Amino acid sequence: MATWLSPCALSLLLLQLSLQLSPLHATDSLTANQQLSGDQKLISQNGNFALGFFQPAAETSSGKWYIAIWYNKIPEQTIVWVANREKPVFDTLLSRLTVSDDGNLVLLLNHSKSPLWSTNIKNNTAASSTVVVLLGNGNLVVRHEANTSAVLWQSFDDFTDTWLPGNKLSRNKKTGIIKRMISWKDRGDPAQGMFSIQLDPNGSPQHILQWNRSVVYWTTGNWTDNGFSGVPEMSPLNPYPSSRFMFQFVDNDEEAYFTYNIKDDALIFTRTIIDVSGLFQTLSTCSENDASPCSCLKGFSENHPNNWKLDDRTAGCRRNIPLQCGNNGSVKVKQDRFYAINSVKLPDDAHNIDATSVQDCELMCLKNCSCTAYSHSGTCLVWYNHLMNLQDNIDGSSDSIFIRVAASELPNSGNNKLLFIGIIIGGIFAVSSGLAILYFLHRRTTTIDGLNHGDESLIRFKYSDLQRLTRSFSEQLGAGSFGSVFKGAESDGTTVAVKKLEGFQQGDKQFRAEVSTIGNIHHMNLIRLLGFCSEGVKRLLVYEYMPNGSLDKHLFGSSCTTLSWKIRYQIAVGIAKGLAYLHEECRDCIIHCDIKPQNILLDASFVPKLADFGLAKLFGRDFSRVLTSMRGTVGYLAPEWISGEAITTKADVFSYGMMLFEIISGRRNLEHKDTSMATFFPVLVARKLHEGEVQSLLSKELVNGVNERELERACKVACWCVHGNESSRPTMGEVVKILEGVIDVEMPPVPRYLEVLSEGSENVKFFS
């Protein structure tokens, strides 16, 4: 029997169907027949977290999209969880997140019924009543709509690289399942990276950090009731964590886990991450409204500025000038002063003292060497030692605080008469000394064309100055990438090395910008750039002079000095530190692109310094073009470089490994003993490692003085560095830790890539 509907009833039915099948609107939950796609998102009820499609900032041109959870109230999108981290989608409008018929949360492409990603819940007996909810703590849960406690799946059990307060990093003693955090592959790819943290699978009450899921490079130490023995920052004596975090370690018959929560509402946007470089850290965002939420007060500077650039502000700030405490009444030392900050929320941990006026309150603070600030609004409040959680204009606050600093930090508002006398005396001095100053400046500019203030301490030389310094480039020290190097000497005896760049086509403005970047990089294992010349097509760089020349002369040349094992190991560690600085600590990651013994210079104490660093970046960042113009470095090039793939810092790691083999042996990696036979040293090292005979690799001059542990470490590091798969190579920061004995490394495989090459080594020239 057919059923007929009136137009009104039909309209209501269509409306009902359209509501049931419509995409998601602003809500914290997702039910059956609802979907999320495009720019739609879930928002937790407290508004702190959002879930939707996101694209890593470093990969906006790749078209890759992921389902993720992020902080909803922070201007810079900060990701705390990623669903399909290994399987991105490329069209968010044709992709949808929805609840499937079996009660799973799934990510589908187009009209496919096979999910790209799924929560993989088994035997959901009430699939039709499944609801997905984004909670206010950042946890995404799948549960039954009628029973909120029946959690079928939660993102807190599916760690990525972030650990939010309230979550548990655990080991299930019944099932053996261990929850671990795994870093991103790189800053533009949330796929699983090389670093992870988990509870010790051997049962010790500690967490271990691993590289490649196998090599332990750091441990927290065992839990000792109130903290981990290897993490002194967690001590109850440390005021910051003890007052702001609650730590708990539970170890029972069912499971062992560690969790933390926050006491301070101001730290609601707190997370713990394992970074792509293996750094494990807890970060707190100070404000939900400001893209640059934290800053140091006047008179203070950042502790560890490089960490601040990475949004790690946990080290806080330090005073620029120490307080002049203890000099009460001294006429020789100016008394500390205060400056006011108005309309603030006062810091925590204030102490109430007996002072009836603002003046008395200030005096009481000055008398106490530990007092750092005071406030008075009917009551005198003072703060000792650290100031924590000082916030601007919270909820229209009208409180003021007075910050204590050394007198020299504030402008002198003293006697105008004294100021006038000072001006008169200064004027007389200026007139009497003016001619001498002008004469000095005139003499100075005849040799050096003034300081380029935009490049900080870099000196801008005239070409004629460098001609004079080098005696018309008469004494050549060597030939490096893109030019020759000449010795120069000032009249005061200062010696420099002047490099003439050849075939260099960059414009003056770009050249100076690149030079400024390199000139601001300072490290004891990087050659110091002192100045430059840019006149027409003439481009020259002026470096500090290294009296012991380049490493290759001591390893392969006619130098009468045989480097001891101690010096060789010192050189290996120093080079690794220099590269780690370029890769991991500079504002911009710099890939050296030409690591070889010729580019390692040695000072009077045989401390190594990388030369020619950054020249690939300086030459326009076109790595394929740089490759074709490099000479004599084929034996150090990574396989991905030769095949034309994109280059990362791991290309430098490969080159370092090839060079480390040569530092160990004192010979080139490939030495022809006769016309029919060649020995490829890297493959020989790997084989001898597995045979336990690494000492046989050394020359007679080194055997007696070698440290066997250092030799084994160096051989292992070299083999890992030249691994054919770049993701299996360590970072240079890890290399430093291994060589210094901070972390251990497992036995490396024999590098198959190099074995294949060595089989035809008579046709491949590995020497430079």
From TrEMBL:
What span is annotated as the signal peptide, if there is one?
1-26
Q: What is its main location?
A: membrane
The record places domain Bulb-type lectin at 27-155
Top EC class per UniProt? Answer: transferase
> Which residue intervals define the domain Protein kinase in the entry?
471-743
Cellular component per GO, a single term: membrane
Q: Where is the Apple domain?
A: 325-406
Q: Which family does it belong to?
A: Belongs to the protein kinase superfamily. Ser/Thr protein kinase family.
Q: What is this protein called?
A: Receptor-like serine/threonine-protein kinase
> What species is this protein from?
Miscanthus lutarioriparius
